[in-house]
Amino acid sequence: MPPKKQITKQQIIDKAYEIVRREGYESLTARRLAKELNCSTQPIYLAFSDMKELKAELIKNAQEQMLKYIIASSDKDLPSPLACILAYIRFAQKEKQLFQLIFTSGGLNLDKINELDSGNIKLDINMIVYANGIIMMLAFKSFEIPEEKIKDMLIHAYELFEKDN
Description:
single chain; mainly alpha; Arc Repressor Mutant, subunit A; Transcriptional regulator, TetR family; HTH_TetR; DNA binding; DNA-binding
């Protein structure tokens, strides 16, 4: 009987996710992952045909984490699309590495975000584009914007976009 697998696919995903969350996707290599798992690279390549396949799994997990965060931390005092956008910005600030993985990999799935609210998709897209501008300014430290100011800016943009519809 062949020996039992000691490193599971889920353990590999969890450890890779931990590395990416802490240090970014660029830090993730098969050797680095193997070192953190205290094994050779063999279990990694038995579970995944290549690192691209693992990255796809990480993107999926990061998207799910973002959606859970948006649902859990949406401000109930704001209209739903606006609350989702504010939570989206908070996620990008709190989980910079995961957001970068999602955003730069083309893994930002607007359909999933729109499923959170059955509102006008055009509005959601406008707000996401606006929010990404704020996120980039915060990420590159172009401006320090307090959350109350961000909320005011989003409310103003929301009202303007709603007038256009």
